[in-house]
Structure formats: structure tokens, C-alpha cells
Amino acid sequence: MPAWLRPGGDTIAEAARRNRFRRPLRIPAEITDAAIEIPIRRAKAQLLPGRKTELWTYGGTFPGPTIRRAAGQPTSVTFIHQLGAGAGELSAHLHGGHNRAEHDGQPGGLTELQQRSFYCDISPRLGDAAAGNDVLISPAGSRTYEYDGMEDGEPERGSFQWYHDHRLDNTARNVWRGLAGMWIIDDPAVEGPLNLPTGAQDIPLMICDRAFDKRNRLTNPFKSPGRVPFDQVTGQHIMVNGAITPHADVAPRRHRLRLLNTSNFRAYNLRFSNGLAMVQIATEAGLMPNALRRSKILLGPGERVEIVVDFASARGKRIRLESVKRPGARSLGSKPYVGDIMEFRVGSPAIADDTATLAELESSDQLPSLPAWTLEAEATQPVHTHSWVISVGGGIRPRWLINGRTFNPAFAEASATLGEVVTWRLKNNTRFAHLMHLHHTDWYMLSRNGETPPPHERCLKETFLLDPFDEIVVAGKMSGGGDPLDPDYTGKYVVHCHMLDHEDHGLMSQFEVVEAPNP
Fold first, then answer.
1. Whole-angstrom Cα distance, residue 12 to residue 16?
2. What is the pLDDT of residues 331-340, one digit of tens each?
3. Domain that holds residue 233
4. Cα 100 to the center of its chain, rounded Å
5. Which pTM does this prediction carry?
6. Three-state DSSP class for 57?
7. Same domain, 206 and 348
8. What's the longest Cα–Cα distance across the chain?
9. CATH (domain of 351)
């Protein structure tokens, strides 16, 4: 019998700790086709010793398959809902993509299968179009999402994205159960001159945490959800690409690591146990204008970074990727997980490596410059045109609020016209941290708490950490000016906290992109 089932045996947590780094890292299968079908179905995976764990999956694996496409190439993905009526409707969101509103993964509203919302004020009388229900994936049904791969008349930037469920009130539950996968946009024309590691030396890593019961089943923390503002779902096991604290065998040469945090609530303050140098080359919005040498990188839920590390300096050694304390962090959400993430086992024989060195990347003039609109926004420093203020509403059932409201799919808090560069203020008026994600486009931070942002935030991003009472000002272009017959995308796009319990408990709003008036 497994140790934890024998009298006096280990608990599951203790057994997992003893088995730390024993499981090999798995790299999800890649799909590079232009037309893709992905069933959403139950599947069992060997996550812990003993019984397999049942998950909700994209394509039968956790994570789902990694979709990898070239910049500017359209992609059609058909998701087929095979989970049954008990799962309710689903909604697939390509996180980080610039997509038409109807293909962005709208949360939707109330339906026959979901007749009320505990935290959002949504009228049951809204029609399907007003509620966004017409773009949901019904049980036993399917929906095809069309991703054009274009933005502002140009191929969308190369970047590390991910896809996940985005259904009203149930995003946290559905992602927790396994509905997440990675998406990579390659741009050889831009990345080629940088001479970055490729192939087996280009490794995507999806980090998350999960909790299990004594039968190796995922716990169900959403049956009795935590009350606002102490709502948080965390797990005692840290997983990378679906394996608990795995190990990876790597050659003693430079590697490109793409790091993604898909935890529901937890942040990770990442570093290497031996102080191995890492150079950050990208955020969730793609390559930065300057590569930065980092000793630690804080990664909140939904955020991504790409780093280059040189394992040649650790030949024959074992190095841990670990998460450490964050000085001064005291509130929920501000404090990262502390512990090991995974282990890299570095080979001994020396290997020739002709990719760019860390020093060459730091001094490279081949990294793409910021788009012109960011420099104009920075130079003028205009007064923000709209504020998004986070607070907690009182009453019998406290809820998270943006500008005093919960989410309403029929209501847009702000509007912007195609081609406009908007400057918005995001203010956290609570004692708890939030990770704010703005859909539709990439954003550029102009200030943090009235000061110039640090270098790692002086670039394009779309997910931003707001510690208690933080205030940031960001600018974003509502893409336009491309094909006059197809000038880009109008419609409603959401702004929400990517601490998924917060999103499900009201911390979500919308803006609407509209066509410019005729001159």
C-alpha cells in the first residue's frame, strides 16, 4: 500500500515532499496548425503517487496542448464542450491576444444553467446579445474562435500567451480544475537577429499550485467560497507543466525559459538557488526594449516573463528554481509563496554554444523599440481620462467593486475610439493586493505611485500588480489605422483582477471601443 495509507504512514503532503524533484518535467505537445479542434473533457493524470487525479482538460492533458503560431498568421480554434451540463457554459479566452470582441472569451451573464450570480448585479432580463451569452460554449456544443493574428495593421507582436476559461463566477473553479494551456507567437524577423536559444533550449514553464484530498482528488474550495475580502484559493503542492516539483535535465549551455503563473491567487518571487544570473528579455507583451539582468523576478497570477540563463556555469550541478520572501510584503496577495519550484540537473560535458551571451543581450541594439505612441504618451504625460478604483462593498455579502460597481455585461465603464491613445489611472483603495489585467491591447506604464516606474515595468505589459493603496497610470492604444475596410476591433472588453477569486466575486468591469465619428 502507498505509505500514506499504511497505519502511521506519511500524509500526502509528506509523501510529496519526500518525492520532490523525482518526477521529470513534461513539455506539453505543440500544435502548429492553422485550424485546430480541442475537446474540453475529463481526463485522469498521474499527479501524485497512487491514484490518478481527474481533471477538466483541453484535449485530455494538463496543461492543454501548447499552440504555437507565426506572427501575423490567422488561427481558428474550435473548442468542443464534453464536460456535461453540470459544468455549465464555458468561455475560452486567449490571454494576451488582440482579438475581436466576440472571440475574446467574454464572461457572459445569466442562463438557464446559471440562473443567478452571488456577487455580480446582473439582470435576468438581459437578452443573449446584451449579456454576452451568444458567444458562450454550451454543454455538448462547440464554438470556433477566430484569431486574426494582426494588430494596428501589422502582425501581432511575438509573445508568450496562454488560454483559459473565463466564465462568469466560475473562472477560478474552471482554471483550478485544469482548463489552461500555453500559446506562443513566434516572430523570426524580430527574434532572429538576437540569436536566442531555440529548440530544446526554449522551454515554456507553467507554474501553479493545487490542493488534493486523501484520495488524490482535487479539493473543491468553491463549494463554500471564502468571503470577501479574505477570499483566496491556494494549494500545498507546486506544479510545473502539470508535474509536482519536477526536475529537468538540461545541457550546460544557454536556455530561454518562458515562465507563466497560472495560480488562482499566489505570486512567486523567483530566483535560482545558487545565484545563477538571469537576463529578462520579455514580459507578457513580448520583447522588452532593453534586456535586464535580474536577481529575483516577482510573478503574479496571469503574468509571464521570459529569461535567458546560462547553465554552463553550473556544469554537473543541481540548481533549484525557488520562490523567496518579498521584503516588506504583509498583505494577502503581496506575500509570495516561499519554497522550491523545480530542479535543473545540468549535464557535465562541455557543449559549444553560439547563441548570444547574457552580456551581449544586455547591450543589444536589436531588441525592438517601444512603439511611437508610448513615447508620445510619456512626453506629454496627459492627465488621465478615466479612473478605475478598486474597493470593497459592504452589506450581508461583501463584494469587490470597481468604481462602486460589480460586473454587469451590459454596462461599459469607459469608452474609447479606434486609434485613440487613452491614459487611465488604476487605484487600489483596499488593504489587499490585486493583479489587474486589461484585455484588448498592450499597455505602457507612465507612473507608479507618482514616480517613474522601475526598469522592468518601462515596457509593454497587460497585467499589473497593485499592492495595497498603490496607484498606477497606464497608456494604451485602441488600435486603428490599418485597412480602412477593416480598421480593427470595436466592442466591449473586460478589466479585472487576475486573482481569480476576486474576479469571480465582482472585481471586473468593461470598456467599449467605438468607431471614431465621421469628420
1. 6
2. 889 999 999 9
3. 199-362
4. 19
5. 0.94
6. strand
7. yes
8. 80
9. 2.60.40.420
